[in-house]
From TrEMBL:
Gene3D superfamilies: 3.40.50.2300, Winged helix-like DNA-binding domain superfamily/Winged helix DNA-binding domain. This is DNA-binding response regulator. Residues 126-226 bind DNA. One of its GO terms (cellular component) is protein-DNA complex. Residues 126-226 form the OmpR/PhoB-type domain. One of its GO terms (molecular function) is phosphorelay response regulator activity. The modification 4-aspartylphosphate is found at residue 51. It comes from Hymenobacter perfusus. Residues 2-118 form the Response regulatory domain. GO terms for biological process: regulation of DNA-templated transcription.
Length: 226
């Protein structure tokens, strides 16, 4: 999973980072709330691990900001905190965290909670995804715009589904490579650009009366407008 760890205790942060990396996770560390929020706005993380007692902005404020202004407001958040009172746990969960792990914790427990989160996330959501007049039906692998069918290749379909699941948010090319191409992706190729341009032709140019949906955010990635 792509993990953002917001933690100001350098030794603990390094211990967690190393442990997660050893288990195949990709981890970025931010030492304070504002830096963490900045990183969360640029990268589509799968989970944020959030300390509560942070300099400048405490964890609850960071959490509220993530939920209100973040690039990915739905990103799962696990609070890691020495504040072990039930009322702290309750306020963290009520502020929108998925989970609360009391410090000190064992790395194995954190890893197990990440696996649990990943299982929930990996459950394929069968409900159709909609954006304005665009509809994608994952179950029947069908796409329509304004009720008119759009024929897509498997890769184009996977690409559109990924963008739709993050509608309104920038999806970085690295994330597209990881989710749509997995191990087949050749870093040097322009295969993503080619697929985006085919998708744009089928999705937007074929519907000149409708507002274009697919945007390129130069230097960052691609986004379906919300
Ligand atoms: Ca702290």
């Amino acid at each position: 999973m792509r993990v953002l760890l917001i933690e100001d205790e350098t030794r603990l942060a390094e211990f967690v980072r190393q442990g997660l990396v050893q288990h195949g996770h990709v981890v970025d560390v931010a030492a304070d709330g504002p830096t963490g929020l900045e990183q969360a706005a640029l990268t589509a993380y799968d989970v944020v691990l959030l300390d509560m007692m942070l300099p400048g902005q405490n964890g609850l404020e960071v959490l509220r900001n993530l939920r209100q202004f973040g690039n990915n407001p739905q990103v799962p958040v696990i609070i890691l905190s020495a504040l072990s009172d039930t009322r702290h746990v309750i306020s963290g969960l009520d502020a929108g965290a998925q989970d609360y792990l009391r410090k000190p914790f064992e790395l194995d427990e954190l890893l197990a909670r990440l696996r649990a989160l990943d299982r929930v996330r990996a459950t394929p959501a069968a409900a159709p995804l909609r954006l304005l007049d665009l509809e994608l039906d994952p179950l029947h692998r069908a796409v329509t715009r304004g009720g008119r069918p759009i024929s897509l290749t498997n890769r184009e379909f996977a690409l559109l589904e990924l963008l739709l699941r993050h509608a309104g948010r920038v999806v970085p090319k690295t994330r597209i490579a990881e989710k749509v191409w997995e191990v087949d992706y050749d870093m040097g190729s322009n295969v993503i650009e080619v697929h985006i341009s085919q998708l744009r032709r089928k999705l937007d140019r074929a519907f000149p009366d409708q507002p274009p949906l697919l945007e390129t955010v130069i230097g960052h990635g691609y986004r379906l407008r919300s």
